[in-house]
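Incident log entry.

Two folding requests arrived from the same account within the same minute. Monitoring flagged them as a possible duplicate submission, but the sequences differ. Recording both here for audit purposes.

Request one:
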Amino acid sequence: MSKKWGQHFLIEPNYVDQMLHVAQVDEDDCILEIGPGQGILTEALLQKKSQVTAVEIDPKLYQQLSKKLSQQKKFTPVNQDVLQYTPQELISFYPEPYKIVANLPYNIATPLFFKLLELREHLLSITVMVQKEVAERICATVDSRKAYGVLSIAAEVGFERKLAFSIPPSAFAPPPKVDSAVVHLLPKAKVMPAEKEAVFLRWIQGLFNQRRKTLLNNLQRCTPLAFQTHKSYLEKRYAKQRAETLTLSEFMELFALIGDVK
C-alpha cells in the first residue's frame, strides 16, 4: 500500500457482491473502474462478463494487475492518474454511456466527483465506495445540518442520490481509521446550460466559503452590485438566514434573481 495515493484494499468479498448488486452490473455492461488496486472488484466485474477499463495510478499495481488478468479479453488496464483526464477524455473510454464502479482512493473522491458531474450525460450510473463522511455530504439534504454544503448541492443538481450501505475499517487492508460507504448516483438531465451550471456552482461555493456568516453578508461579498439593487427584498426575504438553510430550489430561485450579476 502506498501512502502517497491513499490506498486501502478491500478484502471482504461480500461487500464486493453488495456493490455489484447496487450497481446492477450485468453481462456486456461497459464499466470504468478507478483505482482497482489488487483487483478484487475487477475480477468480480469480469466474472459478470462486463467490459472493464481499470485506471490505476500506481505503476507497480498496474503491472501486477495487468499480468494477473492478461488472459481476460474484456479487461483493459490503464496506468494513469484519473484526475489528469479531461471530461472529454473520460467520455472517450467507451462510445456509449457507461457505468462507473469503484473503490475510490479517499484523497481523490471529491475532485473526481466534480469532474464526473460535467460528463454525467455520458454515464448510466456511478457506484463508488468512499469515506463515509464524504458519502454523507454527497447525499445530505438541508435537514442534515453540518453535512450539507457545496458537495451536497452539486450532487443534487446532477444526480439522484442514495447512500447504499456502510463498510467498517476491518474490511480493508490496511484498515483505514474511518468508516467507508457506498453511494449510488443516477444522472439527472441538465436544467441549465453547462457553462451556466458551472457559474451557479462557483456562486454556491462563494456563499459557503464563510459558513458562519449570514447569507446576506455572503451575498454582499459575492455579488455586491446585485445585492445593492435588490437589498430591500433580500433583507426582508433572507433576514438572519445562512446558506446552509436554503434548499436547491431556493438557491436556484435566488441565482435567477442575482447570481449572474456581480
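Request two (distinct sequence, not a duplicate):
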Amino acid sequence: MDTGALVDEFLRHLRTERRLSPHTVSAYTGDIRRFAGFLSREGIGVNDFGRTHLLKYLVHLREEVPAGKGGTEKGGGRKRGMAARSAARNVSSLRSFYRFLAREGAVQGNPVAEVRAPRIGRPLPKYLTVTQVARLLDAPDRTLEGARDRAMLMLMYASGLRASELVTLRMENVDRDAGFLRVLGKGAKERVVPVADRALEDLATYLAGARPAFLKKRVSSALFLSKRGKSITRQTLWNRIRHWALIAGIDERISPHTLRHSFAGHLLAGGADLRAVQAMLGHADIATTQIYTHVTAERLRDIHRKHHPRG
C-alpha cells in the first residue's frame, strides 16, 4: 500500500474507530499530509524513514515551513519556521501515525517511538472576570439571532461546554425539567452536566421563538440553528461571540474556550471541589483541571500586588 493510501487509512481510523472530533482530525490531517509530502520529496516510503530522516524533517519544520501552515507569523522581514509548540504537536501526530502503521503490520518498528518533543510550558488559560461575563451575557439584543446567541453564551458559561460540544447538541440532549444536559465530548464520551436556571430560561425563550422561526416548515434535531435552519457552525459561533464581546466593550480577543475557562476558574474561585469541576469539564486527567487552580492563584497574587500597601 502506498503512502497516500496509508495516510487515508489512518485518518479513517481516527474518524470512525477513535471517533475524534472533526477539529482534532483536521489537525492530524495537516500534520500527516505534511509528513507525506516530505517523504515524497525525499523519494522514500514510510518503511524507509529512520532517525536520520526524522532529524531532517524536524529541521524542515523549524526552518522551512512557511507561516500560515502551522508556523509562526513573519517577523523582521525573514520567513520563520514552525513554532516550537506546533513542531511538538507534529512529532506527537507522527508517533500516533507510526503506532497505527505498526499495529496494522504496514511497518517494522517505530522510528518515532523513543523521540520526545521538547517540554513546552503550558500557558495559563485566559478567562473573563465576573463583571466581563455579565456584560457579555447582557449584550445580545432582542432580535431572533440575539435570543439564540444569548442562549448559546449562557449555556457555554453555565455548563463549561467546548465549542464542538455546543454546536453538536441535539434537542434530545436537553432535559429542562431535571436541569441537565447530556454532552458528547472528546472520544465520544458522554457526560451529564448541570445547567443553571438562568441558562434554562434563556434556552426556553430561544426554543419558543427564534428556533421555530429559523426552521419555518423544516425539521431538524439540532438544538442551535442558523437563520437558514441549518445546524450552527463553529465558525459562526466564534464570530457571534466576538461580535457581542465588542458590543460589551471587551477589548481582548476571546473565543468559545474563554467561556469554558471562565466557567472553571469562577467555580474554583468560589470554592467548588476540583473533582466536581473535572467531571463537569469532561477531563480524563485531573492534572488538566488543575491548571485552573494556578489561574486562581495567579489572579489572587495580582490582586494582592495591586491593592496591598506592601505588595
